[in-house]
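Supplementary Methods S3. Complex input for the cytidine-5'-diphosphate-bound model.
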Amino acid sequence: MQKMIIAIDGLAATGKSTQAKRLATYLKYRYIDSGAMYRAVTWFALQNNCCASPKQCDVNALIAHLPALQITFKTIEKGSSTLFLNGENREKEIRGMEVSQWVSTVAAIPEVRTFLVDQQRSMVQMQGIVMDGRDIGTVVFPNADLKFFFTAQPKVRAQRRYDELRAAGQNPEYKVVLQNVTERDRLDSTRAIAPLVKAPDAIEIDVSDLDLEATFQRLLTHLPKNH
Ligand code: CDP
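Predicted complex, serialized as C-alpha cells:
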C-alpha cells in the first residue's frame, strides 16, 4: 500500500507527540515533531536577545537570523526523536518553561511559519510520515491521508505536562504550567496565520479519560485495513 501522510494536531499538551511517535514506529514511518521546530526558533531568539519583555520580539532581527538556522532530527534511540539546531542537540533546552512561555509569540510571526512550513513539506519525500502540531492537517498537508485532532480538559493536560517536566528533572509550579497551556491555546487559536483549528475532515479525539494505551488503540481503529 502507498505510504500515508498522517497529521496529528490539537491543543497543547494532549500527548500528540507521544502518540505520533508510537504510530510512526508501528507503521515504520518517519516522525516529525513540528512543535519542536517552533520551540527551536524560540530558543534561538531568546539566546540572541531577539525577544524581550513585555512579550515582544524584535521580529526583524529574528527574521535576519532565520536563513542561518539548520534544524534536523535524529533518532538516538528507537522510537525517539531528538532535535538538533545547527548541529547541537537542543532537545532539553527547547522543552523548558521559558521557551514554552514565548513560543506562541514566535510562532505567530508569518516569516517564521513560512520558513518552517517549507522545511516540514520537504521532509515527506517518498516515505510515510506522521507529523504532529497545530496546522499540519489544515496548512502544511491539507491533503493528508489521515488527520486527527486531540483535545482534553485543561487540568488533565496541565497535570500530564507537569508530570512530564518533573520526570525530566524540572521543577515548575503546577499553576504556571496550567496557565501556560491555556494561554498557548488562546494565542495559537486566535493568531491571524494558520490558527489552531480542527480541519473539517479530522477525527477528533478527547483524550481526557484515555490513557496512552487506550489512545493508541483508538488511533489504530482508524487506519485503513491494509496498512
Ligand atoms: O507539546 P505541546 O502540545 O505543548 O506543544 P508543541 O507541539 O511543542 O508546540 C509548541 C508551540 O509551537 C505551540 O504552542 C504553537 O505555538 C507552536 N506550533 C505551531 O504554531 N504550529 C505547529 N505546527 C506546531 C507548534
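The chain has one domain: 5-220. The two ends are 6 Å apart (CA to CA).
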